[in-house]
Amino acid sequence: MNSLPWQQEKVIQRTQLILSSFQHWLGHSLWKEKGLPEIQTSPQDIAQQLFEVPFAVASHGTEIDPIFNYGNQKALEIWELTWEEFTQIPSRKTAELVEQAERDHLLAETTKKGFCYFSGIRITSTGKRFKINNGIVWNVINEQQNYQGQAAVYSDFYFL
């Protein structure tokens, strides 16, 4: 890869969907949710800013076993993966088997309601367990309201 993830057109487009979908479901921007000033710049600048924020943002697509298609720098650090590695793994692999039923229920509930708040245990690529508190997961939709996957954000987490 010759460019940073946030410089790629498909990532810029995904960033726009993630942010507009958050606004759609929660009625305010992700920036406001996290106490940050609103950003009025180019789509690439916004993609860079989302990639560099100090909280984790990740999303997966619509595959039967959804694959991550976005993870900002904080998410990559937490899961101990490169962009290339992260965007090739099924999102279910971030939860241990004992947590799968809870995660599946959360994602199904989100599909119905549009968004949900969550807490739960997740696992890094090297097996480190961590607890997420007060996370938000939401459906990613396009301008035609077609389902494009789901995204999550969290900043309150600690390693177990």
What does it look like?
The chain has 160 residues and is α+β, with helices and mostly antiparallel strands. It has one domain: 2-Layer Sandwich (Beta-Lactamase), CATH 3.30.450. It is 36% helix and 27% strand. The chain is built from six helices and six strands. Strands 1, 2, 3, 4, 5 and 6 form a six-stranded antiparallel sheet that branches. Strand 3 and strand 4 form a beta hairpin. Helix 1 crosses helix 3 (43-52). The radius of gyration is 15 Å and the shape is globular. The termini are far apart. The relative contact order is 0.17. The model has no long low-confidence stretch (mean pLDDT 93).
Question: Mean pLDDT, nearest integer?
Answer: 93
Helical proportion?
A: 25-40%
Strand content: 25-35%
Q: What would CATH call the homologous superfamily?
A: PAS domain
**Cα distance spanning the termini:** 34 Å
Q: What's the main sheet like?
A: 6 strands, antiparallel
Our count of domains comes out at 1
Query: Given the helix and strand composition, which structural class is it?
Result: alpha+beta
Element-level helix/strand string: HHHEEHHHEEEE
Just give the CATH class: Alpha Beta
Rg: 15 Å
User: Would you give the CATH topology?
Assistant: Beta-Lactamase
* Residue windows where pLDDT falls under 50 for at least 5 positions: none
At CATH level 2, the architecture is: 2-Layer Sandwich
Separate helix tally = 6
**How would you sum up the global shape?**
globular
The counted number of beta strands is 6
